[in-house]
Amino acid sequence: MIRLAGVTKIYKTENHRKVVLDNVSYTFDTRHSYGIFGPNGAGKSTLLRLIAGTEQPNSGKVTRDLRVSWPLGFSGGFHPKMTGRENVKFISRIYGADTRRVIDFVEYFAEIGHYLDMPVSTYSSGMGARLAFGLSMAIDFECYLVDEITAVGDARFNLRCKQAFDERRGRSSIIMVSHSIGTIKAYCDRGLALHRGKLIAFGHIDDAVEFYRKNN
Amino acid sequence: MDAKEMTEARRRPAASALAINLAVINAIVLRDIRVRSGPYYTGFLMILLMPLAHLVALLTIYHIFKRLAPVGNDQIVYFGLSILPFVIFLYLSRRIVIALQENRPLLFFNRVKVFDIIFARGVLEAVSCVIVFIFVIFILDIFSDGFKPRDWAGILFALFAAIYFGFSFGVINSLIAQIFPFWATVYNLTMPLMWVSSGVIFFPSNIPEPYNYWIALNPLLQCVEWIRYSYYENYPDRILNVSYLLSFSTACLAFGLIGERLSRRIR
Fold first, then answer.
1. Which domain holds residue B128?
2. Is B112 in Cβ contact with A79 (below 8 Å)?
3. A164 reaches B (C-beta below 8 A)
4. A157 CB near a chain B CB, below 8 Å?
5. Which residues of chain B have a CB within 8 Å of the CB of A105?
6. In this predicted model, what pLDDT tens digit does every residue of A22-47 receive, in sequence order?
7. For domain A2-69+141-214, which CATH number applies: 1.10.3300.10, 3.40.50.300, 3.40.30.10, 3.40.309.10?
8. pLDDT 10s digits, A44-61
9. Is the pLDDT of residue B266 over 80?
10. Which of A172, B174, B209, B232 is most buried, taking the most CB atoms under 10 A from its CB?
């Protein structure tokens, strides 16, 4: 379970105060996979960072009793001067995973060939994303947080991601944010919408889609 | 082989908080060594050479200007021992301050906490300080009439106190600089002040009362006094206050760590 209790998150800039989450309380039942809809700037990625624990709320509490991934989606966090292999080793050490097994998996999944031994700064954005996804799939999380999966790869790579997630169904769940209704419907069975600082839950994912269409 | 075979069949049990901390710190130390060493490991040599070169340059200046040692009859040992805590403090605290700036992207991974980044850097820097210390002792032994301290244990304790103070001072300044970015400049501006008041370029016991007690408030001066007191016979210890030095360092560390926890919610 992942619980948000009275979570408020505010970003302050010089002459602006943006309330991203306004006293949000919600419990994610991690036997299900959730898709979160919302327009640009609604705070979807912030919500994922709060769930991951990489950012703290201004007030309220986020509690989780399972292994949650970092928010996947782009190659953030890799050191550009280190090779892909060195980055993979470092991150698998952080998460206490078997380094050799993780590297084997990443070689198989990311399909970047000899680039694995090149500095990450030489990668295209697609290669960075393949490495990031391969790495996260290799580490056994109970809940994967996914930020805009379709934005980072080609059709073949997206199919590969889908297959990898399907293999983990029943073992791991997903909380995903995306603008793509099709992607969310393919991965998730529950829908939420982030609207004006509030997280609105819907009984059926189609109701969330309808709400998103009306308000976007 | 397919993806299924590569996934561990059984889920590993959850690790304890301490085991996670140690795994993360170990990973960051190894990464820090790799990143800072550069492709040919020359960078790591530079990490050691910078404070050593700094110390040797200052010693050479004192030697050229024939500055007399106020205590003992060996100029190289007196100034070498006095400059050592300053150099350790300067490089250690500065590298702790920039550790968070350099490694901020690591916070993208939810297992990595600010404390892990700072502590990992502290471990690495403490090891390089000890290596620098060993080199300095060799240099002083070769270029003087022999390095013969009154109390070896005291010198080692003073070294570790300088490391502890440098680390704690780095921690509090690094966290203030996270909230107020201009603080990094303020920190850099305080370094010449720390040098001037550290008791290297003047002899603290020659300062009249009550001014000597005021300058004794500089913890770096306490490190310098402690190391000299441990080396020389009958060195005046009137203003040396070890418990003040350790309390000041501990307070910096505690405020830094508590402040970091509190600041997470306002950022």
1. 29-263
2. no
3. yes
4. no
5. 3, 6-7
6. 999 999 988 889 999 888 888 888 99
7. 3.40.50.300
8. 889 999 999 888 898 999
9. no
10. B174
Of A82, A90, A96, the CB nearest to B15: A96
pLDDT of residue B2: 55
- A82–chain B Cβ distance below 8 A for any pair: yes
> Do residues B255 and B170 touch, judged by C-beta distance below 8 A?
no
What are the tens digits of pLDDT across the range A112-167?
888 999 998 898 878 888 888 888 888 888 899 988 765 566 778 778 888 888 88
Say yes or no: B109 contacts chain A, CB-CB below 8 A: yes
Q: Which residues contact B163 (CB under 8 A, 6 or more apart)?
A: B88, B92, B125, B126, B129
**Residues of chain B positioned with their CB less than 8 A from the CB of A101:** 6, 8
Whether residues A53 and B110 touch (CB distance < 8 A) is answered with: yes
B18 has a chain A CB within 8 A of its CB: no
pLDDT at B3: 54
CB contact under 8 A, A101 and B14: no
Q: A77 in contact with B at a CB cutoff of 8 Å?
A: yes
- Which candidate from B8, B23, B107 shows the least CB-CB separation from A93? B23
Q: What are the backbone angles phi and psi of residue A166, rounded to the nearest 5°? A: -60, -40
Q: Report the distance separating Cα A134 and Cα A212, nearest Å.
A: 31
Chain A CB within 8 Å of residue B11 CB? yes
Does residue B6 belong to any structural domain of this protein?
no
Cis before B39? omega within 30: no
Report chain B's mean pLDDT, rounded to a whole number.
87
Enumerate the CATH 3.40.50.300 domain ranges in chain A, comma separated: 2-69+141-214
Q: Is B189 exposed, middle or buried (0-12, 13-18, 19+ CB in 10 A)?
A: exposed
Q: What per-residue confidence (pLDDT) applies to B67?
A: 78
Domain contains B241: yes
Contact B106 A77 (CB under 8 A): yes
Number of domains in chain B: 1
Whether B138 maps to a domain, the answer reads: yes
- Report the residue of chain B nearest A94, measured CA to CA: B24
Total length of chain B: 267
Domain assignment present for residue B182? The answer is yes
Is residue B223 scored above 90 in pLDDT? yes
User: Residue A172 in contact with residue A142, Cβ under 8 Å?
Assistant: yes
CA distances to A100, B41, B47, B96, B175 from B32, rounded to whole Å, are 21, 12, 12, 12, 19
CB contact under 8 A, B27 and A90: yes
